[in-house]
Amino acid sequence: RLIAANNARQSGRPVPEDARRPLWILVDRPSVFGHLAAADGRRDPQELLHVPLRHGRAVHITVVVADQLDGLDALDETVRSHTRARVILGPVAAPQVEAVLEAPPHTTPTPDVPPGRGYARLGTGPVLRLQVPATPDPYDDGTSDAHRRAVLELLPEPLARERVPEQEQMPHRTVESPQASGPVGRQVPAEG
Length: 192
Known about the structure:
Layout: H1 2-11, H2 17-20, E1 23-28, H3 30-39, H4 50-55, E2 61-66, H5 77-82, E3 85-89, H6 94-101, E4 117-122, E5 128-131, H7 145-154, H8 178-181
Parallel strand pairs: 1-2
Antiparallel strand pairs: 3-4, 4-5
């Protein structure tokens, strides 16, 4: 994508359509992948994010990295330094917010926060409070009936499964018996 866009710009042609279309790369828990790769003797998969993180904005590539607080130290330095927007959700202490966002929150985090509440920081801007709408899983046993119905009413109707037509019967062909087609039990010389 980067090469195609660069070649088009150098030759004065428009950037190809597939390089102009937004591309999102979502990596969930890269710290775990790093541990698995190290255990297998392979290089850290976070290294694959270096080019998209450094140069992706020029060709509409957005990289999203999601991890748990316990994996923060395992994040690659390039991943940490080139992520422009950062978000932390859930009940966290002020030092944890500062570790993730690299700036202290302007309000004190509370120990009991509703699902989806946290802090965000864009670039070097201020730390902002954030509320992400929380949608309960309608198929989770812990979801109340009222929440389950509310979510299911928003979902599209399930598609009716199409019946696959039964395969047509192959016409029966009669196979000649070995006696009718030639001698049986004839010895064939082996090739060596």
